[in-house]
Amino acid sequence: MVVGDMAIHKRGMRLLINEVEVPVTSIEFKLLEALAESPGAPVSRQNLYMRLFGRKAYLEERALEMIVSRLRKKVGTRSDGDDRIRSIRGEGYMLTEPLQ
Fold first, then answer.
1. Three-state SS across the chain?
2. How far apart are CA 60 and CA 22, in angstroms?
3. Residuewise pLDDT in 10s, the chain (100 residues)
4. Who's near 38: CB < 8 A, 6+ residues apart?
5. pTM of the prediction?
């Protein structure tokens, strides 16, 4: 899967940004894969919880937010300065697409 300057290789769970490998954990990779399936479209928190943990989220849980925070630090921002992973208030998260 390729989204902008990111290449996501399912085999071997590898992430390359500008052809440089970025180490990610298996759960961070699952999150990135879920977001990359529909770049530019929000993915709900509940959908992400089901994909990552196999269950619905409880209101007070912050596990997803912690994983998103760690992954954001690893992937950084795009070359245009925009965040690669954006929070969509009341919906979830989305992987931003680079401007054409």
1. CEECCEEEECCCCEEEECCEEECCCHHHHHHHHHHHCCCCCCEEHHHHHHHHHCCCCCCCCCHHHHHHHHHHHHHCECCCCCECEEEECCCEEEECCCCC
2. 31
3. 888 889 999 988 999 999 999 999 999 999 999 999 988 899 999 999 899 888 876 766 788 999 999 999 999 988 888 899 999 998 999 998 765 4
4. none
5. 0.88
